[in-house]
Design brief:
mainly alpha
Length: 391
Amino acid sequence: MSFGKTYDRWLLIITLLLTGFGMLMIYSSTSVVTPTLAKRNITEFYYFKKHLFTVAVGLIVMFAASKVSPALLRKLAIPLLLVSFVLLILVFVPGIGVSAGGAKRWIRLWPSTFQPSELVKLAMVIFLARFMSMPEYRADRFFYFFMPVAIMGIFQVVFLGQPDFGAAMSLGVLTIGMLFLSGVRLRYIASLLLFCIPIVIKLLQEPYRLKRITSFLDPWKDAKGSGFQLVQSFIALGSGGLTGVGLGKSRQKLDFLPEVHTDFIFSMIGEELGFIVATIVVVLFAVIFLRGVSIANRAKSDFVYYLSYGLSMMLAFQALVNFSVVTGLLPTKGLPLPFISYGGSSLFVNMIAVGILINVSRPEQEQKTKDDLTEIIKRKKAKRAVYGDAL
């Protein structure tokens, strides 16, 4: 697989390390056929083979994304946002949408399912990078703050209809974070946050969300009920100590810790390989974020600057929330650990994000992007000179 001579090698190496490590931990977490899995006729290699296929396709899409020029990404920003919205609506269409656990978040795609909310986050980052890098963009004007917030709000309404409170919060953090980065006035952001407080309070009053909060505050109060998953996560992390109980020797994966191969795989990493390896995983994600920031700070165009920061925040925020949930710092929320957890949608989108970052890390792409944007600005100025401000 060739990415060129000047790409960010550390970003690629760490991504491949985390992905390979994730394959190992997914096999470890699902290789023991528990009674629950046996009832569903799931064999030792069932999840591993499916994840292996997902990783293979993910590497292909990462390679493809590394070949897409920033200029083409700019052109695709709005179409991609529209496509992601259509896919998001399709989850409500009978025969296409797939329900699980009372939620409608997936669409049926052979040979598996796809979660459009993951694509929405990527599409929103690319759109915001394009929007904020327009020559006419003014961070101090309310219109340029209101437009992306309104688009974000439309997506969030659909998210809450699924319901997917986590996706709505993630999109909100990404959007506000990128707007803050562009230099919008703090009073605009503060006003939006004040406006959202009663809405968030109302949403949190839903019985199942309220139960998550109470179990988060004191999971031991109902250790066999609403606090069961978090308590078992604590037991897994505590059992591992510094060096772990040994690869493949986890006890919590034996039907004690729910979702051990998806949202709570970090707990099993801590149990089997200990605090030292768990810390290394956290550090690797921090390095990915720092590499993305480094790419952004070297950017010669506003589009690549905002795009690199946005993608880095997207990856880092998801990892941070996952770490916080399994360690009891945040209420339980279904966000997988990037590159490591089982799940195709998240892996595909995160691989695309890394592919884009690898592409824009090349100096030659940066110069080409700068030249393209300079040409666009020249054409706009020429048209204004001919047609006047009415254009």
